Amino acid sequence: MSPAGPVLAAVALDALLGEPRRAHPLVMFGRIASCIERKLHRDSRIAGAAAWLLAVALPVLATALLSANLERWTSWIFASLVLYAAIGHRSLADHAGRVESSLRAGDLDAARHAVGRMVSRDVDALDESQVAAAATESVLENGSDAVFGALFWFVLFGPAGAVLYRLANTLDAMWGYRTPRFARFGWAAARIDDALNFVPARLTALTYALMGDGATAIRCWRTQAPQWDSPNAGPVMAAGAGALRVRLGGAAPYHGRWEARPLLGEGGAPDADSIAAALRLVRHGVWLWLALIVTATAVLGGMHA
Q1: Which of 171, 12, 169 is nearest to 89 (CA)?
Q2: Which residues on adjacent β-strands are paired with residue 246?
Q3: Cα–Cα distance, 195 to 73 (Å, whole number)
């Protein structure tokens, strides 16, 4: 099955409907994963890997079997719906848009509340520029995690690839913390997510460079990304900040204390305009990917005609 049709349909559904409001598959998966973690948790990498496999294997296998055994048009519809559930472009724009509009209205409390739905840092300690930075960073990073990564694995391996990627991403968000509880148990979830994101993150960084200030984006990617603690978020956020010519990173409050982080990008301090610019960067990147997928599909189809 050609990926172009389902990709276009899924992106259109996401733009029109946003995330499913009831019984979102990822929310249901999160509840199941939490139950598995409570039952199997041990201070052990092996236990964490077994829990990861138990949580992911069945839905990925079921998706693959359904895709292989459905009739052509039913399979096309199924693939479109799976990818629609896996991407979150509209949701990202909705959440970031609330932060942007609150900042433009001068309502810092509302902006803090809105950005608190996007990030894990202590939002009550943030001023206007720090709120804008948090939202902009989240847009850039989630553009990779919630949009381009899912598209990449869907194009490679169909619905099962998108499901594998998004479930792995969800488990990393749940278990991939360097806390006493998850330092060993969550090791497999963190490393698998790193592996699955290695190529998509760099393609996302390249996309940001192409859609923004390319020279600055590449320079920031090359010089700043290695300083970031995440091997994949570093390239994405450094290139994105450079493409936008905005200063991101720096100290941020987590769990009651300020943690030092490297600086990213260059240029002015972030504000509401930075959030809007980041959303445009992701949106234009999506259009670029759609054009490339459709073109590649047409070329390959013509070669096999």
Answers
A1: 12
A2: 268
A3: 33
Sign of CA dihedral 229, 244, 193, 93: positive
- What b/e string do you get for 23-32 counting C-beta neighbours within 10 Å, with b at 16 or more? eebbeebbee
Domain of residue 204 covers 4-303
Domain count, the chain: 1
pLDDT tens, 171-204?
A: 999 998 888 899 999 999 999 999 999 999 999 9
Long-range contacts of residues 260-263, Cβ cutoff 8 Å, at least 24 apart? 261/228, 262/224, 262/227, 262/228, 263/224
Tens digit of each residue's pLDDT (9 = 90 or more) over 36-83: 999 999 999 999 999 999 999 999 999 999 999 998 889 999 999 999
**Which residues does residue 185 pair with via DSSP β-bridges, in sequence order?**
none
In tens, the pLDDT along 11-36 reads: 999 999 988 777 788 889 999 999 99
Q: How many CB atoms lie within 10 A of CB 191?
A: 16
Give the C-alpha separation, 262 to 272, whole Å.
Answer: 22
**Residue with tokens 């006493």, as numbered in its chain:** 180
CA 85 – CA 18 distance, rounded (Å): 9
CB 195 within 8 A of CB 212: no
**DSSP-based three-state secondary structure for 126:** coil
Has residue 305 got a pLDDT over 60?
no
Phi-psi region at 162: left, alpha or beta (left = phi > 0; alpha = psi -120 to 50): alpha
Interval 100-149: pLDDT, tens: 999 999 999 999 999 999 998 899 989 999 999 999 999 999 999 999 99
- Show Cβ contacts of residue 80 under 8 Å, excluding neighbours closer than 6 positions: 5, 6, 9, 10, 13
SS (H, E, C) 224-280: HHHHCCCCCHHHHHHHHHHHHCEEEECCEEECCEEECCCEEECCECCCHHHHHHHHH
Two tokens, residue 300: 């390959």
